[in-house]
Structures are given as C-alpha cells and as structure tokens.
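Friendly challenge for the regulars: who can give me the structure tokens for this chain first? No prize, just bragging rights.
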Amino acid sequence: MSKRSFLALALSLLAVLSSRAEEPKAPVRFAIVGLTHDHARGFIPAARGRTDIQLIGIVEADHALVARYAKAYQLDAGLFYDSLADLLRKTNVQAVATFTSTFEHKRVVEECAARGLTVMMEKPLAVSMEHARAMQAAAKKAGIQVLVNYETTWYPANHAAYTLVNDQHAIGDLRKVVVHDGHRGPKEINCSTDFLNWLTDPVLNGGGALMDFGCYGADLITWLMHGQRPTSVFAVTQQIKPDLYPKVDDEATIVLTYPHMQGIIQASWNWPIDRKDMEIYGQTGQILIPKKDTLKLHVRPTPETEQTPAPLTGAQADPLSYLAAVVRGELKPAGLSSLDVNVTVTEILEAARTSAKTGKRVDLK
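First reply, four minutes later:
Bragging rights claimed.
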C-alpha cells in the first residue's frame, strides 16, 4: 500500500470513529415510584425536554392522586401504573426515582434490587438503622446503586467549600461545622395533604424536623469529614407547635463530637425565613455559605473575600444528570449522594432520636 493510500485509509478510519463518538447516547429510561412526596412536583417538569434521560412510567396506586398529577402536568393516562410489577411487564425501565414516605424506601429498594434497577430516593435514606442495613444488604447482593437526593448536593458553594477545606487546606484543620436547615413548617408553607399525612407521622417519617432537616447537616458534615463517624451524638428536640404537630418534634439541635472537631446541626420547622446554610471553622480561618451560590472566605490576617462559585456542570449539575451518569456506568456514586455516607447519616439521626428521648449523650462504638 502506498503512503498516500495508507494516509487516506487512516483519515477515513478517524472520520468513522469521530462520527461514532459524536453519536448521541440513548436516553436512560427511568420511572417514578410514588407521588406522596411533594418533591416529585419539581422532578417531573425537570425531566421534560431532556435527551439524556426519559420518564417512561409513574407508579402510584392512589387514583385520586394520579388524577391531580395528570391534570397539573398534562400527563397521559398511559404513563401511570398501579404497581412496579405492572410497569415492568410493559416497559424496559433502567432506574427508579422514588417519592414515597421514608418508611417505604426499604420496600422500594428491595423490589428494585430484585430486578437490578438503580434507585434514587429523596432524603433521608431511612427511618432506622434496621431499614438502612436492609437496603445496604439488598444493594450489595444485587449489585445495584442506591442514591440519596438532597437539594444541597447541587449547591456550587458547598462544593467550592469542600475544595477549600479538603483539597487546598485553606483554613487549616476543621474545628467546628454548623449547619442550619428548615423553614416555617410544612403546614405553614402549604405542603400537600398527601405529603403531610406521612411527614408528620413518627413511624412513616421517623420523626419530625429532626429527620426532615437534620439529615442535611448530617450528610454535609459526614461528607466534609471523609465519611468519618462521630464518637458521640447529643440532641435536644421540642414541640413548640404541638397544636400543629402533635406527634413529632418541630425543633431539633444535634451536637456531633469528633476527636478534634464538633458538628452542630440546627433543624427546625420554626425558622422565620427558609434556610439551608452552613458555617465552617478551621484553625486559621472560616468559610460562610449563606446561599447556594455565595461563599465568604476569611483567613487571618487577610480581609474577608466573597466568591460566586461557577455553576456545577455535567453529571454533577443536578440529580437527573447524576442518575443518568450512574446508570450508564460513567461514575460511581460518592460523597453526598452515596449509600455509605447516608448509612452514617441514618446512624447519626437514630442516635440523635435516642439522645433526645433519654436526655443522654449516645456514644457510638
């Protein structure tokens, strides 16, 4: 073969490989299981118009709830199924996003594990360590991925802070992390009746504000601490509004002790203003994150600086992108969304619940 012919052949092969590389990937087919969690209201419209992921079914046995969602989002009746088994008989789904009560997460994960399906759920992972361990065992046996979705996972400022703390060591060793999360209360912000029915139930939610918003702080602190478990947990809960929330706490403060660091989680259904913010203190400086896209860094002796971190991109940009990338095998779950971190989150919340009930510190072995 002449040099010219060889060059032409090589260029032709490169062109073929390039065209194949540019071919769009087939969308990941996912289903929603359950509609009683109001976060489904954001997930459904977010999935529309995307090319990387496709909603092909919704499982919900409550036909009145189905009718409300179908009307609100102009959804075809053929999209709905009474059970996961029914959906699987008629579709080829690859993953599930579940919007059930926290208590039902175990059942959904075990059903999906039996069918080899990746599962993403709304925070928190579980109502108890018994449920968390059961899900962990089911996922390991089936080789599936289980993801936990937190709004704060997709905050650019949180990721910028992690880089400053753990990669750049900008503020020295950690000494204290304080996380504030919550709002005026689920009834006060007009959560749906379907959501309130289980969110204010001590069995189905595992508690009140402690579970609903304490999980955010436990997740963020565990992530910042590279998955390390605290040595002890102490918590105080209150029912400031027993007329509205007679069965569960609406105020919680959790203190986590580490060998050289302390974490404080303030979870509340009594904040006057909605908040999801964090303060990080080290040996030589501090990082304040008042908003998802704002970070204030102050390292002595220099003045405080304010930063606007760039938006997250690619698989890290939002939960749907992350789910699609995990299903395709493009990344392995880690950090805030990972099962391992969220089993530790469950351990913290369960210990906090015990501490609040007994009035004693719980030491973790």
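The domain at 152-363 is CATH 3.30.360.10 (Dihydrodipicolinate Reductase; domain 2). The chain has two domains: 28-149, 152-363. Your move, everyone else.
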